[in-house]
Amino acid sequence: MSKVKRGKVVRYNRWGYIFLIPFMVTFIIFQLIPLCTTIYNSFFENYMSGLKQVGPTFIGLENYKTLITEGDLGKYFTNTLIVWLIGFVPQIILSLLLGAWFSDPSLRLKGQRFFKTVIYLPNLIMASAFSMLFFTLFSDGGPINSMLVQAGILSEPFKFFSSISATRILIGFMNFVMWFGNTTILLMAGMMGIDPSLFEAAEVDGATPRQIFWKITLPLLRPILVYVLITSLIGGLQMFDVPQILTNGEGSPVRSSMTLIMYLNKHLYSKNYGMAGALSVYLFILTGILSFIVFKLTGPQKEKKEKK
Amino acid sequence: MADQTNMNINNRKSAGAHMRARRTVCYIVLVLVSIMCLFWFYVLLINATRSHGDLTTKGFTAVPSGYLIQNLNSLFHSSQPVLRGMVNSILVSGLTAALCVYFSAMTAYALHAYDFALKNFLFTFILAIMMIPTQVTALGFLQLIRGMKLEDNFIPLVIPAIASPVVFFYMKQYMESALPLALLEAARIDGAGEIRIFNSIVIPLMKPALAVQAIFSFVSSWNNYFTPQLILHENNKKTLPILIANLRSADFLKFDMGQVYAMIAFSIFPVIVVYLILSKYIVSGVALGGVKG
Hints:
The complex is a heterodimer of chains A (308) and B (293).
Chain A: H1 2-9, H2 14-41, E1 44-49, E2 52-58, H3 62-69, H4 73-103, H5 112-120, H6 127-137, H7 143-150, H8 164-192, H9 196-204, H10 209-220, H11 222-237, H12 241-246, H13 260-269, H14 273-307
Antiparallel strand pairs in A: 1-2
Chain B: H1 12-48, H2 52-57, H3 68-76, H4 82-113, H5 119-129, H6 138-147, H7 155-158, H8 165-178, H9 181-189, H10 194-205, H11 207-223, H12 226-231, H13 240-249, H14 257-289
């Protein structure tokens, strides 16, 4: 293939570079330069104290140290992880279950397209509007409370947003509802890719559906599961819209639902560029490590496909 | 779960019964899951049709009332520039989607159809930058935009979409199956220039992929809150998510609750309607693309 191409197309090949110009120029201006200035900023003391501008003065790694020792970085990191876990655990369980059902030919479920359409729907909803909706629905005088009181389950309205665990569970639940459809479709695609003769052979050997799931589907699905886990974690670290709107940027109660990006957003608004820079670099390194794992996982397979 | 191991003649009947039981369990769970997804939008729809008085005093009812038009009317005449926000959102998302798919196809085409020294390096490079979150570069981005005096402008929201590694990757995968290089050769022999080949042969062939990715990038731009809220401050420039956030940060009880629900419905339901029309392409697009969000 390449021999033919070299002979005839070689004089066109400079067009490869020309067609790459828009991407590269945009990437350099709007991503690479901002990334570099963000890192540069992280080494400077630069903030507003009241109306007085402090800095910029070079202070080396001071911002990084301050974030760990004085800032609440650890606390916000833990918040982010807890809320992510609350959403992720039910998400992966339900997605595996639904994916297995949808891809099981012996079940012959009817109305699959309807159900897939419904479960994917919340993923396309504006997160900020969804969060605002939950805020109104679960507010002290909102419909959920009045339903629970009308049904006699509660004697008086429950203050969801004054309870640390209720607020976290609501944020996790919203993420769960918004993302499990996406995960289901990904896992289902993975399950469909498994050689059906493996299932047939197992059935002939007398395996139960449960055994087939645990002994065949799950092990063969592991690469996709790890991929889903890590991309979801990367997405979880970027969690912003839902808690920001739900708690009005306060992370209330007592900053227990403040996520890392909300913290970053706070620094950006108060113009504490040194801290914002250091926080961004921490996030960059963290996502970098996680992406590297995804890259290692999916990279070789892609190359194989390309060689074919 | 049912046990359907022994498929011999004696047990065929009971295996059939087990299968029916399994199927019933599946349907029950699926219906419950569907309710979990749709319930919130149902309540939203009902509440958007009710008046402030009903909403605050009468608790929840399952049937709609007749105040939708009034709520929408008072929403359009409120202090929030809602219609303007809608126009801004459509403008930003539409331009983003168009630029994103066109230039991602162009980038993918560059790496698909040509052979050059840095080809493999650039492909790996674009894959490597795929996962850099926009939030991480937000500080530098904000300073850059301020330096360029582009605050309260749609350019910083639209132009960066030209470099979208995820969409690029999808286009590249699609080209491998849908764009034979021999076709390009034939066009060259007929004397077509490279730009013309791209615009009048490659783009029409890529239509299904362009459509799927246009929908995705439109929706993600429509829903985007983080970047616009950093850049747009003027009331007339704001997009819908920022207006929703304004609603939240103002003192909540001062609002007409019917209007609040109408506002949320106003930003959610257009997407739902479009989704239901296009759902066939969207759901299969997710499975094909693999990577999203």
